[in-house]
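Changelog note: in this version the structure field was regenerated for every chain. One regenerated record is shown below for reference.
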Amino acid sequence: MEKDAMGLPLAKQSEHTLEEWRDWEGRWELIDGVAYDMTPSPNFEHQRISSNLNVRIAVALEEACQKFGRKDCDVLAAPMDVYLGPTTVVEPDLMVVCDPAKKSERGIEGAPDLVVEILSPSTASKDMNAKWWLYEAAGVPEYLIVDPVDRRGRLLRLVDGKYEEAARVSWGETVQLLGGELSILLD
């Protein structure tokens, strides 16, 4: 896979299909028919943050289940395929899915309730551009972007079909997710 001047993966080719994608070796995302290589694996800090957020979201979901009667919500970590269209399958770092109809044997079929992407040098541009617009168009209600370098998080909420910034939080602060039902510490 060729890389651009910033070391970001270049698209393999445009207009690929899910059928082609299924036969590729390695880990790939397909966004509107454009292929993105998912290698190398995330670094230690990325995985530490992902693990911490996964646990915190799971605990907060348990509390929300008791407090708000939320049922059927799962927090899932990569690798987990999310199918968002006929030529789009992505692998968010973390997601929350509450609709049982979206959970299938092959992955998640449709927009999760929350997507979390942890920026890394090789994926930051894709997460801040292609995935931002993809998640917005697919109707993902909340998109949390975590920046380990700046030690901040940015929560976007879907309002009338467009993302609006709902919160900016620094390390050690809490962020309110799922419309305020979950409160988690970011670090």
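Spot check on this record: The CA atoms of residues 128 and 145 lie 8 Å apart. The radius of gyration is 16 Å.
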